[in-house]
Amino acid sequence: MIQLLFAVVFAEMTLILLLLFKTPLRRAVILGLDRTKRSHGPVVVKTVAGTVALVLGSSLYSVRRIYRRRALEGDANPTDQILMTTHLLEATLMGAILSLGLMIDRLHHYIRELRFRRRGMEDITKQNRALQDEKEKVIRGMEEEVSELRTKLKYLQSDLSTKTEKASVAEASVVALRKQSEGLLLEYDRLLEENQKFQKQVRVLDQRLSRSGSKKVM
């Protein structure tokens, strides 16, 4: 019984050492514990732990009974001493087994939680990288669009300056044509006045000629 308890204690200590240090066997131990905690594994572990706790209680009760009997009798019986020592050793080993088992369970839980958080952090890091890449792509697209808009703006400014120059030339031509038309109108008015004067002179000459002709006939 004691040899079995020692073997279990050493086995649990070995598992704890394997869980504490990052070795190639650590992953295998974690996978084995994961499988143990699935399906009927927790029920079996709780049953074994309950049985060990009952045996531990029985050993402690036997130690107490032997101690009370020694106190009543007052004699140091070698058989009782051996039994008491044996029960104390068994109780100590079973207490160590329960404590180490609880420690293994907590270590396994913390390792799984740590791995889960690391995976979560890796996922968050990947998401941040993806968002950063998407942001950089958007920024590059916006920069290209701004560059294209600047090129179009320069083209429009050049086109606008060209059309402004053409408009200025056309406006100057319009002003020149307007002045020319005003000069032509003034010349037309002058010629019209001269024509009217000439017609008056022609009428006067016609009247004179008609008068001189009538005197000759008489």
TrEMBL record:
UniProt xrefs under InterPro entries: BAP29/BAP31
GO biological process, one term: endoplasmic reticulum to Golgi vesicle-mediated transport
Residue ranges of coiled coil: 121-208
Known role: May play a role in anterograde transport of membrane proteins from the endoplasmic reticulum to the Golgi.
Location, primary (coarse class): endoplasmic reticulum
Membrane-crossing segments per the record: 6-22, 43-62, 82-104
Intracellular or extracellular location(s): Endoplasmic reticulum membrane
Name this protein carries in UniProt: Endoplasmic reticulum transmembrane protein
UniProt record similarity statement: Belongs to the BCAP29/BCAP31 family.
UniProt membrane topology term: Multi-pass membrane protein
Record carries keyword Chloroplast: no
Record keywords, A-Z: Apoptosis, Coiled coil, Endoplasmic reticulum, ER-Golgi transport, Membrane, Protein transport, Transmembrane, Transmembrane helix, Transport
GO cellular component: endoplasmic reticulum membrane
Superkingdom field: Eukaryota
